[in-house]
């Protein structure tokens, strides 16, 4: 992606964010006049950010790059959260110098050892573009048998939109899927020339109407913790807290763990699922992605 294309992406993001705000939300008086488009007008954003309307217009059109002070002002005016501010900064700071081809990503041995030791905690390692690099047997039992998938299909976002059982596994699939799209959008800002990510977005945009619509909304997220309710076909309902731990030596690898409060039905059901997984896991199958591109 060229720097011009990246500026265009920044402009689309700004337009999407101003469309979500009303004059009242930013302290502007209601004039009562009819608005042709929802949200704030360009001149209103420019006024609040103390820049000229012409400057802001050219910024939205991808014709110029923004300075750090202007970005800070726009982030304030558009009421961006921390994840959106980081995304805005990523878009403004990237250029076309990053190489298009990246070395194949494999799980770090230290993270693999952690996975191997977690018997009663579902866990997996996510890499760039949310590829699943490694997993433990309980994660496979909870989510899907990753080993049975082609390596190029072991991507968490892709699973959410292409595997039918994922829509029934999550009690609130739409919320989970929307968040995953927002996380992937953040990845796209960090690695704008990632060919495989571009191909993934293209494939999912063609295959799924929801993905295509949510991707076009330009929402971003940098969520690292949360709680999810799952309806598992073997053990029933599970309420799990998930946490993301980033590898210090490789910030592109994240250990995701799913845990339950002690002395709860979910805590007991995880142990039942672990016992079930031990009986059904083929020990010859790898628990890591040895062919990740």
TrEMBL record:
<feature type="compositionally biased region" description="Basic and acidic residues">
    <location>
        <begin position="1"/>
        <end position="20"/>
    </location>
</feature>
<dbReference type="InterPro" id="IPR010982">
    <property type="entry name" value="Lambda_DNA-bd_dom_sf"/>
</dbReference>
<protein>
    <submittedName>
        <fullName>Helix-turn-helix transcriptional regulator</fullName>
    </submittedName>
</protein>
<dbReference type="Pfam" id="PF13560">
    <property type="entry name" value="HTH_31"/>
</dbReference>
<feature type="region of interest" description="Disordered">
    <location>
        <begin position="1"/>
        <end position="35"/>
    </location>
</feature>
<feature type="domain" description="HTH cro/C1-type">
    <location>
        <begin position="39"/>
        <end position="85"/>
    </location>
</feature>
<dbReference type="InterPro" id="IPR001387">
    <property type="entry name" value="Cro/C1-type_HTH"/>
</dbReference>
<dbReference type="Pfam" id="PF17765">
    <property type="entry name" value="MLTR_LBD"/>
</dbReference>
<dbReference type="InterPro" id="IPR041413">
    <property type="entry name" value="MLTR_LBD"/>
</dbReference>
